[in-house]
């Protein structure tokens, strides 16, 4: 484009940081090529300009010769008129007239030849000036021809790049929120994902701490919202990590099925105050971290623990009867 527009340097678009060393090498190569072409054209123009100057000096010399010949012609013509007067008076022979005629004809011929030389030199100067213009025009024409060849390919490459970029963009699965990956549902390289399939579980950054516990169906009658609970973090050092106090904040109304074991269970959520969480010190909780939850149920005596199975059997026996 710089050659087409007659510029002495390339005007490059702003490139991204990802352009890389390859683009830098291409730019340097194209810059050297442009500078080389400019030097070649400058040399050609300088040579043509020198030729014009030489022809100008030649014209100056021819014009001086032409002026001198005109002076000689004027002298011979004056001499010829005088000789004719003497011949008419019979004072000299007529052969002297023939001599001056020959000399005058010779001078006129030389004068005409010099004038023709001046005209030829001026024509050459005009031709060289046209060549000087043609040097730049040829470079621009060649650059335009090269661009007309490259631009369709460039447009095609841009279209292909846009299509590839779109495919890559669609291949990237982006979470709508920032957070921490908690569970990967698909981890097979090159696997096919069906529409609406669960891929990953993301815990949002800054989300409220939620502690879930699984309750056996046989224990659900002893758990209710507001009930006290103790939390023990088995992932931390048990000797240095205290138990935290919390309370039941939610109990699911129906059972859920464990996909791994197939066992049913209820889900309970435990709320822990900030003061209790501060007891963990530098221990940082992570999504999916295991812990044990102990729920304080109704007070029972040692006799009730022994008698309850018998009472349950007795009640079932009464219902069967």
TrEMBL record:
Keywords: Cell inner membrane, Cell membrane, Coiled coil, Membrane, Transmembrane, Transmembrane helix, Transport. It comes from the Bacteria. GO terms for biological process: protein transport. One of its GO terms (cellular component) is plasma membrane. It is found in: Cell inner membrane. Transmembrane segments: none annotated. Residues 2-167 form the AprE-like long alpha-helical hairpin domain. It is a single-pass membrane protein. Residues 38-72 form a coiled coil. Residues 210-297 form the AprE-like beta-barrel domain. Its main location: membrane. PANTHER family: ALKALINE PROTEASE SECRETION PROTEIN APRE (PTHR30386:SF17), MEMBRANE FUSION SUBUNIT OF EMRAB-TOLC MULTIDRUG EFFLUX PUMP (PTHR30386). Belongs to the membrane fusion protein (MFP) (TC 8.A.1) family. This is Membrane fusion protein (MFP) family protein. It comes from Aminobacter aganoensis. The lineage of its organism: Bacteria, Pseudomonadati, Pseudomonadota, Alphaproteobacteria, Hyphomicrobiales.
């Amino acid at each position: 484009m710089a050659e087409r527009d007659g510029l002495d340097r390339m005007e490059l678009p702003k490139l991204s940081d990802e352009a890389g060393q390859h683009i830098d090498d291409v730019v340097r190569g194209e810059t050297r090529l442009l500078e080389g072409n400019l030097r070649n054209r400058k040399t050609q123009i300088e040579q043509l300009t020198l030729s014009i100057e030489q022809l100008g000096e030649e014209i100056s010399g021819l014009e001086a010769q032409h002026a001198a010949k005109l002076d000689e012609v004027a002298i011979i013509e004056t001499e010829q008129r005088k000789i004719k007067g003497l011949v008419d008076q019979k004072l000299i022979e007529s052969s002297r007239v023939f001599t001056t005629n020959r000399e005058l004809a010779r001078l006129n011929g030389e004068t005409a030849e010099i004038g023709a030389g001046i005209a030829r030199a001026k024509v050459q100067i005009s031709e060289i000036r046209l060549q000087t213009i043609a040097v730049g025009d040829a470079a621009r024409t060649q650059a335009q021809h090269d661009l007309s060849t490259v631009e369709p390919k460039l447009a095609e490459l841009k279209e292909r790049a846009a299509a590839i970029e779109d495919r890559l963009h669609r291949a990237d699965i982006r979470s709508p929120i920032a957070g921490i990956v908690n569970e990967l549902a698909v981890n097979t390289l090159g696997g096919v994902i069906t529409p609406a399939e669960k891929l990953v579980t993301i815990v949002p950054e800054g989300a409220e701490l939620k502690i879930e516990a699984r309750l056996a169906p046989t224990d659900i009658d002893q758990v209710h919202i507001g009930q006290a609970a103790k939390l023990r973090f088995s992932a931390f050092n048990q000797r240095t990590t205290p138990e935290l106090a919390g309370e039941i904040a939610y109990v699911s109304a129906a059972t859920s099925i464990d996909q791994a074991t197939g066992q049913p269970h209820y889900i309970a959520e435990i709320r822990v105050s900030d003061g209790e969480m501060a007891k963990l010190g530098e221990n940082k909780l992570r999504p999916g971290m295991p812990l044990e939850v102990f729920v304080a149920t109704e007070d029972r005596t040692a006799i009730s623990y022994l008698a309850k199975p018998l009472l349950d059997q007795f009640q079932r026996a009464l219902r069967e009867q």
